[in-house]
Amino acid sequence: MLYAQEPYKRTIKLMGSRFDITVVAKDPVEGNVFIDMAISEITRIEKLISSWDINSQTSKINRNAGIKPVQVNIELFNLIQRGIGISKLTDGAFDISYASMDKIWKFDGSMIFMPSEESIKASVVKVGYHNIILDKENHTVFLKLAGMRIGFGAIGKGYAADKAKDLLKSKGVVAGIINASGDMNTWGKQPDGKEWKVAITNPMDKNKVFALLPITKGAVVTSGNYEKYVNFNDVRYTHIIDPRSGYPATGIISVTVFAPKAELADALATSVFVMGIEVGLNRIEQLPQVECIIIDDKGNIITSKNIEIEKS
Ligand code: ADP
Ligand code: MG
Fold first, then answer.
1. 205 and 65, same structural domain?
2. Does residue 283 line the site of ligand 1, with CB under 6 A?
3. Which of 87, 222, 246, 306 has the fewest Cβ atoms nearer than 10 Å?
4. pLDDT tens readout for residues 52-106
Protein backbone atom coordinates (compact mmCIF):
# COMPACT_ATOMS: atom_id res chain seq x y z
CA MET A 1 0.00 0.00 0.00
CA LEU A 2 1.28 3.45 -0.91
CA TYR A 3 1.00 6.39 1.47
CA ALA A 4 1.41 10.02 0.55
CA GLN A 5 4.85 10.86 1.85
CA GLU A 6 5.65 14.27 3.25
CA PRO A 7 8.82 15.82 4.66
CA TYR A 8 8.72 16.66 8.40
CA LYS A 9 11.37 18.90 9.91
CA ARG A 10 12.56 19.85 13.40
CA THR A 11 15.33 22.20 14.51
CA ILE A 12 17.09 21.44 17.78
CA LYS A 13 20.31 22.32 19.58
CA LEU A 14 22.57 19.29 20.03
CA MET A 15 26.35 19.03 20.50
CA GLY A 16 26.37 22.79 21.04
CA SER A 17 25.17 23.31 17.47
CA ARG A 18 22.00 23.73 15.51
CA PHE A 19 20.67 20.54 13.95
CA ASP A 20 17.89 20.52 11.36
CA ILE A 21 16.44 17.06 10.95
CA THR A 22 14.13 16.34 8.02
CA VAL A 23 12.49 12.96 7.44
CA VAL A 24 10.06 11.83 4.81
CA ALA A 25 7.18 10.00 6.50
CA LYS A 26 3.52 9.16 5.99
CA ASP A 27 2.13 11.42 8.73
CA PRO A 28 3.31 13.80 11.49
CA VAL A 29 3.12 11.07 14.15
CA GLU A 30 5.49 8.82 12.22
CA GLY A 31 7.65 11.82 11.31
CA ASN A 32 8.05 12.73 14.98
CA VAL A 33 8.93 9.18 16.00
CA PHE A 34 11.72 9.12 13.41
CA ILE A 35 13.02 12.54 14.41
CA ASP A 36 13.08 11.46 18.07
CA MET A 37 15.14 8.41 17.11
CA ALA A 38 17.69 10.60 15.34
CA ILE A 39 17.89 12.91 18.35
CA SER A 40 18.54 10.08 20.79
CA GLU A 41 21.27 8.71 18.54
CA ILE A 42 23.00 12.10 18.31
CA THR A 43 22.66 12.58 22.09
CA ARG A 44 24.23 9.17 22.66
CA ILE A 45 27.21 10.10 20.48
CA GLU A 46 27.58 13.46 22.19
CA LYS A 47 27.86 11.66 25.56
CA LEU A 48 30.62 9.48 24.15
CA ILE A 49 32.76 12.09 22.42
CA SER A 50 32.20 15.35 24.27
CA SER A 51 35.34 16.74 25.86
CA TRP A 52 33.25 19.13 27.97
CA ASP A 53 31.21 16.40 29.63
CA ILE A 54 33.43 15.20 32.50
CA ASN A 55 31.68 11.83 32.44
CA SER A 56 32.48 11.04 28.81
CA GLN A 57 35.06 8.46 27.84
CA THR A 58 36.85 11.19 25.92
CA SER A 59 37.29 13.21 29.12
CA LYS A 60 38.61 10.11 30.85
CA ILE A 61 41.25 9.72 28.13
CA ASN A 62 42.21 13.40 28.53
CA ARG A 63 42.38 13.20 32.33
CA ASN A 64 44.76 10.27 32.05
CA ALA A 65 47.13 11.92 29.58
CA GLY A 66 50.70 11.09 30.54
CA ILE A 67 49.38 8.76 33.24
CA LYS A 68 47.83 5.59 31.83
CA PRO A 69 45.95 4.02 28.91
CA VAL A 70 42.16 4.13 29.16
CA GLN A 71 39.92 1.37 27.91
CA VAL A 72 37.11 2.70 25.74
CA ASN A 73 34.09 1.61 23.79
CA ILE A 74 35.05 0.14 20.38
CA GLU A 75 33.03 2.86 18.65
CA LEU A 76 35.13 5.62 20.18
CA PHE A 77 38.31 3.63 19.59
CA ASN A 78 37.46 3.32 15.89
CA LEU A 79 36.61 7.02 15.58
CA ILE A 80 39.99 7.93 17.06
CA GLN A 81 41.70 5.50 14.72
CA ARG A 82 39.98 7.06 11.69
CA GLY A 83 40.92 10.51 12.99
CA ILE A 84 44.56 9.45 13.05
CA GLY A 85 44.08 8.13 9.50
CA ILE A 86 43.02 11.62 8.38
CA SER A 87 46.10 13.08 10.10
CA LYS A 88 48.29 10.78 8.02
CA LEU A 89 46.41 11.67 4.84
CA THR A 90 46.86 15.39 5.48
CA ASP A 91 50.44 15.36 6.80
CA GLY A 92 49.19 16.40 10.22
CA ALA A 93 47.06 19.36 9.06
CA PHE A 94 44.18 17.60 10.74
CA ASP A 95 44.85 16.46 14.29
CA ILE A 96 42.35 15.53 17.00
CA SER A 97 45.03 16.36 19.58
CA TYR A 98 44.76 20.07 18.50
CA ALA A 99 42.80 20.63 21.71
CA SER A 100 45.62 21.97 23.89
CA MET A 101 46.00 24.92 21.47
CA ASP A 102 42.48 26.04 22.34
CA LYS A 103 43.77 27.77 25.45
CA ILE A 104 45.74 30.27 23.37
CA TRP A 105 43.19 31.29 20.77
CA LYS A 106 39.66 32.39 21.58
CA PHE A 107 37.24 33.05 18.79
CA ASP A 108 34.30 34.31 20.84
CA GLY A 109 35.26 37.99 20.72
CA SER A 110 37.12 37.91 24.04
CA MET A 111 40.62 38.14 22.56
CA ILE A 112 42.18 41.60 22.48
CA PHE A 113 45.85 40.95 21.74
CA MET A 114 47.60 38.59 19.40
CA PRO A 115 49.18 35.84 21.52
CA SER A 116 52.96 36.02 21.85
CA GLU A 117 55.15 33.92 19.59
CA GLU A 118 56.52 32.04 22.59
CA SER A 119 53.07 31.13 23.88
CA ILE A 120 52.03 29.94 20.40
CA LYS A 121 55.15 27.81 20.10
CA ALA A 122 54.62 26.38 23.57
CA SER A 123 51.00 25.50 22.74
CA VAL A 124 51.93 23.03 20.01
CA VAL A 125 54.37 21.06 22.14
CA LYS A 126 51.49 18.92 23.41
CA VAL A 127 49.97 18.46 19.95
CA GLY A 128 50.71 15.50 17.74
CA TYR A 129 48.78 12.45 16.61
CA HIS A 130 51.98 10.38 16.88
CA ASN A 131 51.55 10.59 20.61
CA ILE A 132 48.11 8.99 20.61
CA ILE A 133 48.85 5.35 21.38
CA LEU A 134 46.20 2.81 20.44
CA ASP A 135 46.07 -0.77 21.61
CA LYS A 136 43.81 -2.69 19.26
CA GLU A 137 43.56 -5.78 21.41
CA ASN A 138 42.44 -4.04 24.58
CA HIS A 139 40.78 -1.01 22.97
CA THR A 140 42.83 1.35 25.05
CA VAL A 141 43.86 4.88 24.19
CA PHE A 142 46.88 6.52 25.77
CA LEU A 143 47.93 10.13 25.33
CA LYS A 144 51.65 10.00 25.88
CA LEU A 145 52.23 13.54 27.11
CA ALA A 146 50.82 15.01 30.31
CA GLY A 147 48.53 17.92 29.43
CA MET A 148 47.72 16.49 25.99
CA ARG A 149 44.04 16.49 25.01
CA ILE A 150 41.91 15.23 22.18
CA GLY A 151 38.69 16.74 20.84
CA PHE A 152 36.28 16.01 18.03
CA GLY A 153 35.31 19.58 17.09
CA ALA A 154 36.23 19.03 13.45
CA ILE A 155 34.78 15.57 12.92
CA GLY A 156 32.14 14.89 15.60
CA LYS A 157 29.19 16.59 13.97
CA GLY A 158 29.87 14.79 10.70
CA TYR A 159 30.10 11.46 12.51
CA ALA A 160 26.84 12.11 14.38
CA ALA A 161 25.11 13.04 11.12
CA ASP A 162 26.30 9.77 9.53
CA LYS A 163 25.12 7.68 12.46
CA ALA A 164 21.72 9.34 12.63
CA LYS A 165 21.28 8.77 8.90
CA ASP A 166 22.32 5.10 9.15
CA LEU A 167 19.92 4.52 12.02
CA LEU A 168 16.95 6.07 10.21
CA LYS A 169 17.71 4.16 7.02
CA SER A 170 17.81 0.93 9.01
CA LYS A 171 14.35 1.81 10.41
CA GLY A 172 12.99 2.10 6.89
CA VAL A 173 12.96 5.89 6.51
CA VAL A 174 13.06 6.36 2.74
CA ALA A 175 14.52 9.84 2.57
CA GLY A 176 15.75 12.65 4.74
CA ILE A 177 18.35 15.24 5.61
CA ILE A 178 20.47 15.52 8.72
CA ASN A 179 21.92 19.03 8.75
CA ALA A 180 24.35 19.61 11.60
CA SER A 181 25.06 23.35 11.23
CA GLY A 182 26.16 22.92 7.64
CA ASP A 183 27.34 19.32 7.91
CA MET A 184 24.71 17.81 5.67
CA ASN A 185 23.83 14.24 5.02
CA THR A 186 21.02 13.24 2.73
CA TRP A 187 19.49 10.03 1.48
CA GLY A 188 16.67 9.22 -0.89
CA LYS A 189 14.88 11.96 -2.79
CA GLN A 190 12.27 14.59 -2.06
CA PRO A 191 8.68 13.26 -2.22
CA ASP A 192 8.28 14.94 -5.64
CA GLY A 193 11.17 12.87 -6.98
CA LYS A 194 13.68 15.72 -7.10
CA GLU A 195 17.17 15.55 -5.62
CA TRP A 196 17.77 17.31 -2.31
CA LYS A 197 19.59 20.57 -2.87
CA VAL A 198 21.98 22.33 -0.53
CA ALA A 199 22.37 26.05 -0.23
CA ILE A 200 25.95 27.16 0.24
CA THR A 201 26.28 30.42 2.14
CA ASN A 202 28.18 33.21 0.47
CA PRO A 203 31.09 33.79 2.88
CA MET A 204 31.37 37.44 1.78
CA ASP A 205 27.77 38.03 2.84
CA LYS A 206 26.41 35.41 5.15
CA ASN A 207 22.80 36.33 4.48
CA LYS A 208 23.13 35.39 0.85
CA VAL A 209 23.20 31.97 -0.69
CA PHE A 210 25.86 31.75 -3.35
CA ALA A 211 25.09 28.41 -4.88
CA LEU A 212 22.39 25.81 -4.79
CA LEU A 213 23.77 22.36 -5.49
CA PRO A 214 22.04 19.03 -5.84
CA ILE A 215 23.56 16.42 -3.54
CA THR A 216 23.81 13.03 -5.05
CA LYS A 217 26.90 11.71 -3.32
CA GLY A 218 25.66 11.59 0.24
CA ALA A 219 27.27 14.27 2.33
CA VAL A 220 28.33 17.86 1.97
CA VAL A 221 30.05 19.90 4.63
CA THR A 222 30.94 23.57 4.68
CA SER A 223 33.54 24.94 7.01
CA GLY A 224 33.67 28.71 6.94
CA ASN A 225 35.38 31.40 8.94
CA TYR A 226 32.44 33.77 8.72
CA GLU A 227 31.29 32.60 12.11
CA LYS A 228 34.27 32.14 14.38
CA TYR A 229 37.34 34.28 13.74
CA VAL A 230 39.45 37.12 15.13
CA ASN A 231 41.15 40.02 13.30
CA PHE A 232 44.66 41.28 14.07
CA ASN A 233 46.33 43.88 11.82
CA ASP A 234 43.78 43.32 9.07
CA VAL A 235 44.41 39.57 8.96
CA ARG A 236 41.47 37.31 9.65
CA TYR A 237 42.42 34.30 11.76
CA THR A 238 39.99 31.39 11.71
CA HIS A 239 39.05 28.96 14.47
CA ILE A 240 40.89 26.27 12.55
CA ILE A 241 44.48 26.04 13.69
CA ASP A 242 47.51 24.55 12.01
CA PRO A 243 48.70 21.98 14.57
CA ARG A 244 52.23 22.20 13.19
CA SER A 245 52.69 25.94 13.73
CA GLY A 246 50.02 26.83 16.27
CA TYR A 247 48.76 29.66 14.02
CA PRO A 248 45.20 29.78 12.75
CA ALA A 249 44.64 29.21 9.05
CA THR A 250 44.45 32.32 6.86
CA GLY A 251 43.78 32.97 3.17
CA ILE A 252 40.69 30.77 2.81
CA ILE A 253 37.28 31.83 4.02
CA SER A 254 35.16 28.84 3.11
CA VAL A 255 35.64 25.20 2.16
CA THR A 256 32.83 22.91 1.03
CA VAL A 257 33.58 19.22 0.67
CA PHE A 258 31.40 16.56 -0.96
CA ALA A 259 32.06 12.98 0.10
CA PRO A 260 30.16 9.72 0.61
CA LYS A 261 30.24 10.24 4.39
CA ALA A 262 29.81 13.42 6.44
CA GLU A 263 32.58 12.37 8.82
CA LEU A 264 35.16 12.36 6.03
CA ALA A 265 33.75 15.53 4.47
CA ASP A 266 33.85 17.28 7.85
CA ALA A 267 37.44 16.29 8.55
CA LEU A 268 38.59 17.19 5.05
CA ALA A 269 36.88 20.60 5.05
CA THR A 270 38.84 21.48 8.17
CA SER A 271 42.03 20.03 6.67
CA VAL A 272 41.82 22.04 3.43
CA PHE A 273 41.69 25.25 5.49
CA VAL A 274 45.01 24.32 7.05
CA MET A 275 46.66 22.83 3.93
CA GLY A 276 45.83 25.86 1.80
CA ILE A 277 44.44 25.99 -1.72
CA GLU A 278 47.16 24.25 -3.67
CA VAL A 279 47.96 21.34 -1.38
CA GLY A 280 44.34 21.04 -0.30
CA LEU A 281 43.00 20.77 -3.84
CA ASN A 282 45.73 18.33 -4.74
CA ARG A 283 44.81 16.00 -1.86
CA ILE A 284 41.11 16.22 -2.64
CA GLU A 285 41.70 15.35 -6.30
CA GLN A 286 43.45 12.16 -5.25
CA LEU A 287 40.49 10.88 -3.26
CA PRO A 288 37.73 8.95 -5.06
CA GLN A 289 34.21 10.42 -4.83
CA VAL A 290 35.43 13.53 -3.05
CA GLU A 291 35.05 17.05 -4.45
CA CYS A 292 35.49 20.52 -3.04
CA ILE A 293 34.75 24.21 -3.49
CA ILE A 294 37.14 26.70 -1.92
CA ILE A 295 36.57 30.43 -1.57
CA ASP A 296 39.64 32.50 -0.83
CA ASP A 297 39.76 35.78 1.07
CA LYS A 298 39.58 37.76 -2.19
CA GLY A 299 36.30 36.08 -3.05
CA ASN A 300 37.77 33.80 -5.75
CA ILE A 301 36.03 30.48 -6.18
CA ILE A 302 38.24 27.46 -6.81
CA THR A 303 36.70 24.04 -7.45
CA SER A 304 37.91 20.50 -7.94
CA LYS A 305 37.55 18.93 -11.39
CA ASN A 306 34.03 17.55 -11.31
CA ILE A 307 32.17 20.44 -9.74
CA GLU A 308 29.86 22.62 -11.76
CA ILE A 309 28.33 25.52 -9.93
CA GLU A 310 24.77 26.47 -10.75
CA LYS A 311 24.66 30.02 -9.38
CA SER A 312 21.43 31.13 -7.81
P1 ADP B 1 32.73 24.07 12.30
O2 ADP B 1 32.23 22.77 12.80
O3 ADP B 1 32.91 25.11 13.36
O4 ADP B 1 32.03 24.58 11.10
P5 ADP B 1 35.08 22.58 11.57
O6 ADP B 1 34.35 21.33 11.28
O7 ADP B 1 36.09 22.99 10.58
O8 ADP B 1 34.16 23.84 11.75
O9 ADP B 1 35.75 22.39 12.98
C10 ADP B 1 36.46 23.39 13.62
C11 ADP B 1 36.80 22.93 15.02
O12 ADP B 1 37.75 21.86 14.94
C13 ADP B 1 37.47 23.97 15.85
O14 ADP B 1 36.54 24.76 16.54
C15 ADP B 1 38.31 23.14 16.80
O16 ADP B 1 37.51 22.61 17.84
C17 ADP B 1 38.74 21.98 15.93
N18 ADP B 1 40.02 22.17 15.22
C19 ADP B 1 40.68 23.32 14.98
N20 ADP B 1 41.79 23.11 14.26
C21 ADP B 1 41.85 21.77 14.04
C22 ADP B 1 42.78 20.92 13.36
N23 ADP B 1 43.85 21.41 12.74
N24 ADP B 1 42.53 19.58 13.35
C25 ADP B 1 41.45 19.08 13.98
N26 ADP B 1 40.54 19.82 14.62
C27 ADP B 1 40.72 21.15 14.66
MG1 MG C 1 35.26 19.89 10.03
1. no
2. no
3. 306
4. 999 999 999 999 999 999 999 999 999 999 999 999 999 999 999 988 777 788 8
